[in-house]
Design brief:
The chain folds into three domains: 113 residues, no CATH class; 175 residues, P-loop containing nucleotide triphosphate hydrolases (Rossmann fold, 3-Layer(aba) Sandwich); 68 residues. The termini are far apart. By secondary structure, it is an alpha/beta fold. The protein contains 17 helices and twelve strands. The chain is globular and about 90 Å long.
Length: 378
């Protein structure tokens, strides 16, 4: 019997999916499956002579939803035979959020009324570039060459013709503002930044993260589907084992990333990789031509000068002071903190630790004030 279930497949962040089905009285696919497993587990006792009570007529559910994270809780069989599962439930309308690729394919084959909706990710527009140019100096100290190079690199995303991502490599020493810049661009577009730290990508576990494992394992493709942000940040790209490089060819070329279970089209988004390489020739050497040539732009970040590090410290101090209560602020003086922290500027390796060191110094001053003020114990 052909099923008239209407199926809608949604690709995008969970918050958006929730808005799409808001207001519908929905049953969760998982709850239906759990409830059914429960019934199947119950033993039937048949007393001779007594009429067996008819199993309750099940009502046809109106709207059934499965969210991105739900598929991992289904068993392998339900995933391979997803259409069978849906047929047995027979909802009027099925809403699937970020399902595995073959679930979508099966739905399209079996249920003719299947359509696909995709979230429209924030895109770089002229307005983004204007706000970028205006706000850069408030977020980043120095790095003026980065500002101009990045404006030029982002330009193609503002045109209608661009359908594939812009892929950038930020390179330079640590603690000079690479991640901070990626975060700033993302904040202009909105949505929580999807940030993957590739220094973790050493052992086998990451092979399944990148190439796909069982449907219950986390994967990059699935994380890409769930993302909210227009920016995709692959941090510390130089720390990834070269065996994983080929995983990125298709993504960087055409914006498609596929693993064993999932398929994502990222479209005209911004992919930023960061690294500690020292020069373009070093990047080319380390990554090989195939990967090197897939970057639209390589953007060099310079070490910060002593004066620039002092500015970073000054900004961190001011930002922290604002967060304190007025009572706490009475005990602290920005000038005093700066004198104590200035020696940090002599070594740029300290930049990454500035936030932590500022916090420690502030806590030290405050805890002293607290203990000195209170009454001495008897
Ligand atoms: N040029 C800069 N301007 C402002 N803050 C910076 C700059 N460089 C580093 N910082 C600060 O130092 C910390 C580390 O910077 P980050 O961007 O993570 O460095 P990396 O270049 O290693 O990615 C952040 O808290 C950031 O605010
Ligand atoms: Mg970084």
């Amino acid at each position: 019997m052909p099923s008239d279930t209407k199926v809608t497949v949604y690709y995008g962040p969970l918050s958006w999916f929730d808005e799409q089905v808001e207001g519908l009285s929905c049953d969760s696919l998982m709850e239906i499956v759990y409830a059914r497993d429960e019934v199947n587990r119950q033993l039937r006792v048949v007393v001779p002579g007594q009429q067996e009570s008819e199993p309750e007529e099940r009502e046809r559910p109106e709207h059934v939803v499965a969210e991105s994270g739900d598929y991992a809780s289904l068993n392998e069989h339900s995933i391979t035979n997803f259409a069978g599962l849906i047929r047995s439930i027979e909802p009027e309308h099925l809403h699937l959020h970020n399902p595995p690729a073959h679930v979508q394919a099966q739905m399209e084959r079996i249920f003719s009324a299947t359509d696909v909706k995709r979230y429209k990710y924030p895109v770089v527009t002229r307005d983004t570039l204007v706000r970028f140019r205006k706000g850069f100096g408030d977020h980043l100290v120095g790095q003026t060459a980065v500002k101009d190079a990045l404006l030029a690199a982002l330009y193609p995303l503002t045109t209608e013709r661009r359908t594939k991502p812009v892929v950038l490599m930020f390179y330079g020493p640590s603690g000079v503002g690479k991640t901070e810049t990626a975060q700033f661009v993302n904040d202009l577009l909105g949505g929580t930044l999807l940030r993957k730290q590739f220094s973790m990508f050493h052992n086998d576990k990451y092979a399944s993260y990148l190439f796909g494992g069982t449907h219950t394992e986390s994967s990059f493709a699935h994380d890409l589907l769930d993302r909210e942000s227009g920016v995709i940040l692959i941090d510390e790209f130089d720390k990834a084992n070269p065996v994983f490089h080929s995983a990125f060819y298709q993504l960087f070329d055409g914006g498609i990333f596929e693993d064993k279970n999932y398929r994502v089209e990222v479209g005209p988004s911004l992919i930023i990789c960061t690294s500690n390489y020292g020069s373009e020739s070093e990047i080319r050497e380390a990554l090989g031509d195939a990967l090197y040539s897939r970057f639209d732009s390589l953007i060099a970040f310079q070490p910060l000068s002593r004066g620039e590090i002092l500015q970073v410290i000054d900004r961190v101090v001011k930002a922290r002071l604002i967060e304190l209560s007025s009572e706490e602020q009475k005990h602290l003086d920005a000038g005093f903190l700066m004198t104590r922290l200035a020696p940090l500027a002599d070594n740029f390796a300290n930049v990454r630790k500035i936030g932590k060191i500022v916090d420690e110094l502030i806590s030290l001053v405050l805890v002293r004030a607290l203990l000195d003020e209170g009454p001495e114990p008897e």
